[in-house]
TrEMBL record:
PROSITE patterns found in the cross-reference section: GLUTAREDOXIN_1, GLUTAREDOXIN_2, GST_NTER
Keyword terms of this UniProt record: Transferase
Ranges in coiled-coil conformation: none
Protein name, as recorded: Glutathione S-transferase-like protein
Superkingdom of this protein's organism: Bacteria
Amino acid sequence: MKLFIKLIRNLLGLIIATLDVLTRGTKLKRSPEKQQQVNDEAANLALYQFFACPFCIKTRRAIYKLNLPIEKRNAQEGSPHREDLLQGGGKIKVPCLRIDQDGKTEWLYESSEIIKYLEKRFA
Ligand SMILES: N[C@@H](CCC(=O)N[C@@H](CS)C(=O)NCC(=O)O)C(=O)O
C-alpha cells in the first residue's frame, strides 16, 4: 500500500513536472554584465530538492523565471546530499535553499520563503 501511494505521488509529480516545463514561459533578460554578476552570486546557492515534489517544482519554476543558474541537489534517499541537508539544515524537508555568504551558511526552508528571498535579491 505504502509503495502504491509512493508510485501515485511520483507519477503525479512527473505529470506536474512535465506540465511545468511546457508552460514555464520566458526567463528574465539581463545585460551580459548583470547576468554575469547574478551567475557569480548564484554559484553560492544550492537548492536541495526532490524532482517530483510540487513545492520543489514551484520553487524551480521561480528560479527558471528569474534566470538563476542555481545548482539543484537531489536529497532523495541514497543521495549524499541528503546527509548534508540533515546535518546542515537540521531536517529532511525540501525544498531547502543553501546560502553561502560572508563565510556563513544559512539553510532556508519553505518554498514561499525561498521564492520571496530570491525575488527580493534577484528580480
Ligand atoms: N510547506 C513546505 C512543504 C514542503 C514539503 O512538504 N516537502 C515534502 C516533499 S513534497 C518533504 O520534504 N517531505 C519530507 C520527506 O519526504 O522526507 C513548503 O512549501 O516548502
